[in-house]
Amino acid sequence: MQNIPPENPNAFSDNPTKYAGFWLRVYAGLIDLAFFALLALPAISFYNVEDLNPTESTWMPLGYWDFFFSYVLPLLLTLAFWRFFGATPGKLLTSIKIIDDRGTDKLSITQSLIRYFSTVLSVLALGLGVLWIAVDKRKQSWHDVLAKTVVIKKTSISATIGRVLSLPILLIMLIVFSIFAYQFSTQMLMPTLKQSYCQGNVCVDVEDRLVEASKLYSEAVNYVERNFQPLTSAPNIIFCAKQDCLSDFNDLTHKGDLHAIAYTGHTQGIVIGSDPEAWSQQIVRHEMIHHLQAENLSIITFSLLPEWYLEGMASSFSGASREQQHPTYVDYRDQFEQWLETIDKTQFWQESRKLASMQNLLNKL
Fold first, then answer.
1. What are the pLDDT digits (tens) for 279-294?
2. What is the DSSP string of 116-150?
3. CA-closest candidate to residue 13, choices 21, 1, 29
4. With pLDDT > 90 as the criterion, what percentage of the chain qualifies?
5. Sequence-distant contacts of 280-283: CB under 8 A, at least 24 apart
6. Rg of the chain over CA atoms, in angstroms?
7. In whole angstroms, what is the distance from residue 344 CA to residue 86 CA?
């Protein structure tokens, strides 16, 4: 196809077109995010959280299936959508399209790869690469510039109708995802819906162990409040004495890999696994400190903090000796304690928030 001057993107089509602006592209991006989040839902059934006894076999803490659904599948689908349609689902619904900046209808594989991976650059630079759309004459983001692409929009009546109809589609996708994601929260906030025996905030799957679990819970709460600060609210906690109890929390563990020792779901609650090591002061205190972190840090800040801080603090403050802890967590503990010596401890949480960065989140992934 003959090249078209970049100043005239309308020449490739009989229909009048314009460059797609910032807010329209953000809206299309939200639809894409919801679409790919729904695709990633199957991975939750295979999710393998990093437990307190990491081994060489857990070099990919998210698990193979989670890695595939969260990273490989979106990459392949995005490249396919760009190649054959010039748009991802969000762009198709909002009637906008990616083309070569010379007007060529289809992107090359090289362009698509450059555009996909340079999107990370646009986001990591404090989002400046995306915000650039708002000020650029041709509404190009940094990844558009690097890949030599522009994004255009149709202005026909049918395109306008399509954009209006895209809103309920987005809402439906968000509702479906929210219902699925809320499953774990419901299990934590309403544990009596499952076959369990509860006393206050503590539930177990074997009635004979309720007293033992309650004592561990009370000791951990008292320990944290005595040594650090009062909890805003005591968390719900589920002690699993049997492996099939832990399998109810499919978004926390792999099917077939039910040996996670413990997990704290931000402020939603705590699950203690069936491993004998998990039913100990060390582990319950460790998770209670994670709950303390969650209460004092927003979920966004929490996700952006480095692993050495989150696990190092819990390892250091739990009162456990280094001999009781895995070498990985001893390293985290050492890093945390070195950092602790450099800050004003009266400003602990403020100093903690300064550690948050997008790079930490990427390192965890």
1. 999 999 999 999 999 8
2. HHHHHHHHHTTTHHHHHHHH-TT---HHHHHHTEE
3. 1
4. 36
5. 280/216, 281/216, 281/219, 281/220, 281/223, 281/319, 282/318, 282/319, 282/320, 282/324, 283/52
6. 25
7. 53
